[in-house]
């Protein structure tokens, strides 16, 4: 292996992918042999958090290493802010060929973020025959389905630029709805044989109010949970197959050990957990925890796992660190290389994820430690809701402890850590304007 010269970057992103829905994260039903192979040759982060449980903010954070409150794409708004730096722009400045295939959420800005080649391919939501077809079988063969097209475009680009350093995002539309895999994946899973998450039906002592929005929105559109889960797993297996195609080609071209490979999702999916689907302004693990897998050249530390907390804003500084490029100024993520190379290296005490649902005016901020989950939901009109879960003893978050007297000290500590983080992190003018417009200027949004 020639280990001189610059390394390539290949990022596989899925959209709305619950971290429970991978074989290498312990799911007994879903088949993900290619991602499991990547995990066996890579390092799996078991406690990775998205900075925001919404598509556009999370994608922007991935590309900039910044929290949503700082880059200013704070919710699903259409206009995208200009940013001072991005991973792709820094790579391009260093001589890399840059490309983004698949779902980018910001067609008007993606080139400005530093990508030379941009191709979204087919857009499944726009091609959906009707809302009633949100879950089901795609009539398209794999090569015409977005999952196959994204992989095909990625392979062509890599073949064409095999002699140049490249930075490629291969960004799948799925398993975000529409949940419509091609055959044979649409028939791969028998709904009767699929196990449900333990928290899909349970007697909760309290539920966050934004869950109602998702439940109401999808009532009558999503079929029963087992059928939806079978389609969701089918789409994940189809994406896994296509990721395998890219990995195989990378090996054939002898580039796999000249490339840093990352797999992640922008955010999670309720996936039937807590009784509903998609995502909302809530801080459950189903929404904010994401799969995060790193394959370093030479499969360094391959097959290892890390329990230390990480955040997907760490991707950009980690890649720059491993490539030997100068770190970006003002980036809020941190390089994960020290943790990857030393299993005993201390991780951060907590990570934060924030999401604002403009459609109902609720803002949720979540604080995650290795043991605790604290999240609170504020709005201009309703009382603040607070939740606390003991993830060591209740990983599926089925018992809220925020009103338990003997958890009071932990609740106070989490709340104080989150307050301080929000105060110290501040926010950009654009985010402030957005929140003031929503009547949240008096809420606990420290600046
Ligand atoms: Ca998304």
Provide key terms for this protein:
447 residues, alpha/beta, Arylsulfatase, C-terminal domain, 2 domains, 8-stranded mixed sheet, 4-stranded antiparallel sheet, 12 helices, 18% strand
- Supply the helix-strand structural class: alpha/beta
Name the overall outline. globular
CATH C-level class of the largest domain: Alpha Beta
CATH architecture of the largest domain: 3-Layer(aba) Sandwich
List the total number of helices.
12
Q: Whole-number radius of gyration?
A: 21 Å
N-to-C series of helices and strands:
EHEHHHEEHEHHEHEEHHEEEEHH
Low-confidence stretches: none
Small-molecule binders: calcium ion
Overall pLDDT, averaged? 94
Helix content, binned percent: 25-40%
Chain-wise SSE layout:
Elements: E1 8-15, H1 33-40, E2 43-49, H2 55-64, H3 68-71, H4 87-93, E3 97-102, E4 117-119, H5 146-160, E5 166-175, H6 211-218, H7 225-252, E6 259-265, H8 285-288, E7 292-295, E8 304-311, H9 315-323, H10 337-341, E9 351-357, E10 362-368, E11 372-378, E12 385-390, H11 408-425, H12 429-437
Parallel strand pairs: 1-5, 1-6, 2-8, 3-4, 3-5
Antiparallel strand pairs: 2-7, 6-7, 9-10, 10-11, 11-12
The chain binds calcium ion (CA).
Description:
By secondary structure, the chain is α/β, with parallel strands linked by helices. It has two domains: 8-341, Alkaline Phosphatase, subunit A, CATH 3.40.720.10; 351-437, Arylsulfatase, C-terminal domain. Helix content is 28%, strand content 18%. The chain has twelve helices and twelve strands. It has helices at 33-40, 55-64, 68-71, 87-93, 146-160, 211-218, 225-252, 285-288, 315-323, 337-341, 408-425, 429-437, and strands at 8-15, 43-49, 97-102, 117-119, 166-175, 259-265, 292-295, 304-311, 351-357, 362-368, 372-378, 385-390. The strands form two sheets. It has an eight-stranded mixed β-sheet with strand order 4-3-5-1-6-7-2-8, sandwiched between helices. Strands 9-10-11-12 form a four-stranded antiparallel β-sheet, covered by helices on one side. Helix 5 (146-160) packs parallel to helix 7. The N and C termini lie far apart (50 Å). Bound molecules: calcium ion.
